[in-house]
Design brief:
The structure holds 2 protein chains of 2 kinds. Chain A is of the alpha/beta class. Chain A folds into 2 domains: 222 residues, Rossmann fold (3-Layer(aba) Sandwich); 62 residues, Alpha-Beta Plaits (2-Layer Sandwich). A 6-stranded mixed sheet of chain A has the order 6-7-8-3-9-10, sandwiched between helices. A 4-stranded antiparallel sheet of chain A has the order 2-1-4-5. The longest helix of chain A is centred in the middle third of the chain and has 16 residues. By secondary structure, chain B is mainly alpha-helical. The longest helix of chain B is centred in the N-terminal third of the chain and has 31 residues. Classes of the chains: A alpha/beta, B mainly alpha. Chain A: Keywords: ATP-binding, Nucleotide-binding, Transport. Chain A: It holds the Pfam family ABC_tran.
């Protein structure tokens, strides 16, 4: 199995003494969308920065598609496209110039550069803004511009650091569709995200990083299997009285809704029967969306402590 | 790889030249206005009372020095503003993640500075024609000196910008080092006017060698040996060039 990334015993200590990575080992298989999760300051951006040559590592090895970062940095760079967390383009330039120039920096000849610039600006719905000064673009457009720029060298590995932060739901879903489309073409995608729904939707495998360590590296399915409690929301035909809440061990949510956590092996029939006996009709029922989030919080512990100890992302 | 590197250098130079032309009122116009004032005040008004300098009327004497002063200021200023701006706004990362070799990034930026330096030099020379006739003793010395000097100060600007953490840091060197060196570098006078001790002190100023070599190209007179001057200028190019490359290679001031 080819690995898009193989990281061994990677350590990063910043000049101020902060140890952002404390000997990380991580392998990411090619041809997939992989999620890297972790609270602020956990070391995600540092790891991405090292792989993309924006941060110097202290020790350890990094290989991208078998090429060693130290021995063959230019070959590694030519295989990567990066969408950073912060906007990092010249806001006085136009989207067209930004994307075309990036193609030039990757050594792509002018004619091909122009074709690809048009292709990716169109795919990211920015073609109509190609000659606008990029400072005036909306937040979502700026983020899509960075994706177009990262795609122009048609990388084997696309790294996105919180790509959908601050964009509306419609654009987020269109960006998910775009990422799924390019993953199909054989581009390996690594993304960090705070939206756990995003990881659940897009990724097969996931690593959770905290305090500079990988605390979990598994499939999302396996991760969710480890949850022994599931939370459901029942929408009822009327407001529940305290008695039924106490009887079920549930809590009232919005008007005429209750939230109930039950063991994974417990049958839901008894819950519905108890509601029925008490004169309530169940209008609808759904699984609480943030089940991965519960697990994530449990694994990464106290975030305030994390932020205090580590200031570098 | 050679071809892809060439494409990268061409792209970076084009980007830099577009920037210079886009903001021409900040990059090309001010030196023309400043130097016109120098020509009027020092050349016409005061210069007419000074008389000859090294056998030439004062206006003819100061033209090469003023052109060189404009080239030095523009080359240095272009690099610090462009590279520090790119670092400050983080779009230097576009280059740092790309497979462009470090030397090629340096060549691209220096090429942009050279364009501005030469454009300003031509503009100021053009302005000087309204005030005096220009003679050229050796065109190749004129061209080689202006190109090498522009490269030296572009590289100096690069080092300044790489280590600068805030905008104040890119203003300190031009104000407290570059301007005194230029004004005391024989732009307005021949060091033969100075007492022997101060002539010796002046000779540790590298700008003196550049200005005098450039003036030699125009007038055929110089306070210093031009072979020594070329050796010194080339030494600066290699030392500053190597140090600038090392900055990119190690990521000093650029990568955490």
């Amino acid at each position: 199995m080819t690995h898009a990334i193989e990281v061994n015993n990677l350590v990063k200590t910043y000049k101020d003494g902060t140890r952002a990575l404390k000997g990380i080992d991580l392998s990411v298989e090619a041809d997939q969308i992989f999620a890297l999760l972790g609270p602020n300051g956990a070391g995600k951006s540092t790891l991405i920065g090292i792989v993309s040559s924006l941060v110097n590592k202290t020790s350890g090895t990094v290989r991208v598609f078998g090429k060693d970062l130290d021995a063959d940095r230019q070959a590694v760079k030519s295989m990567i496209g990066l969408v950073p967390q912060e906007f990092n383009f010249n806001t006085f330039e136009t989207p067209y110039d930004i994307v075309r120039n990036q193609a030039g920096f990757y050594g792509i000849p002018a004619k091909v550069a122009r074709q690809r610039t048009e292709k990716y600006l169109k795919q990211l719905q920015l073609w109509h803004k190609r000659d606008a000064v990029s400072r005036g673009l909306s937040g979502g457009m700026k983020r899509r511009l960075m994706i177009a720029r990262a795609m122009v060298n048609e990388p084997k590995l696309l790294i996105l650091d919180e790509p959908t932060a601050g964009v509306d739901i419609e654009i987020r879903r269109s960006m998910w569709a775009f990422l799924e489309d390019i993953a199909v073409t054989g581009t390996t995608i690594i993304l960090t995200t705070h939206y756990l729904e995003e990881a659940e939707q897009l990724c097969k495998n996931i690593a959770i990083i905290d305090h500079g360590h990988i605390v979990k590296n598994t499939t999302i399915k396996e991760l969710i299997k480890t949850l022994d409690i599931e939370t459901f929301i029942f929408d009822l035909d009327k407001n529940p009285d305290p008695k039924i809440l106490e009887q079920l061990g549930a809590i009232a949510k919005d008007e005429a809704s209750i939230e109930l956590s039950i063991a994974k092996d417990e049958c839901l029939n008894s819950v519905i029967m108890q509601l029925d006996d008490a004169g309530y009709r169940v209008i609808s029922m759904r699984n609480k969306a943030n089940r991965l989030e519960e697990l994530f919080v449990a694994m990464t512990g106290d975030k305030s402590q994390t932020n205090k100890e580590q200031t570098h992302g | 790889m050679v071809n892809t590197t060439y494409v990268g250098i061409k792209t970076l130079m084009r980007k830099e030249i577009n920037r210079i032309l886009r903001i021409w009122t900040q990059t090309l116009l001010p030196p023309a206005i400043t130097m016109t004032l120098y020509f009027i005040i020092f050349g016409n008004l005061i210069g007419s009372r000074i008389g000859n300098m090294d056998g030439f009327d004062y206006m003819s004497f100061i033209v090469p020095g003023l052109v060189m002063m404009a080239v030095i200021t523009s080359s240095y200023g272009n690099m610090v503003s462009s590279f520090f701006g790119a670092k400050f706004a983080k779009h230097v990362e576009e280059l740092l993640i790309s497979p462009m070799p470090n030397w090629a990034i340096l060549v691209g930026y220096v090429g942009g500075c050279l364009f501005r330096g030469l454009a300003v030099g031509i503009i100021v020379t053009g302005v000087s024609l309204f005030f005096t006739d220009i003679q050229i003793h050796n065109i190749w010395i004129v061209i080689s000196t202006v190109v090498l000097t522009s490269v030296v100060f572009s590289l100096g600007g690069f080092i300044n910008a790489a280590f600068a953490k805030k905008f104040d840091d890119i203003a300190i060197i031009p104000t407290f080092i570059l301007t005194p060196l230029t004004y005391l570098g024989g732009v307005f006078y021949s060091i033969s006017l100075l007492p022997e001790f101060w002539q010796g002190v002046s000779k540790i100023n590298p700008v003196l060698y550049m200005v005098n070599t450039f003036r030699y190209g125009f007038l055929g007179v110089s306070d210093i040996n031009i072979y020594v001057a070329y050796t010194l200028i080339l030494t600066f190019v290699f030392i500053l060039g190597f140090f600038s490359w090392l900055i990119l290679h190690k990521g000093w001031g650029l990568r955490s």
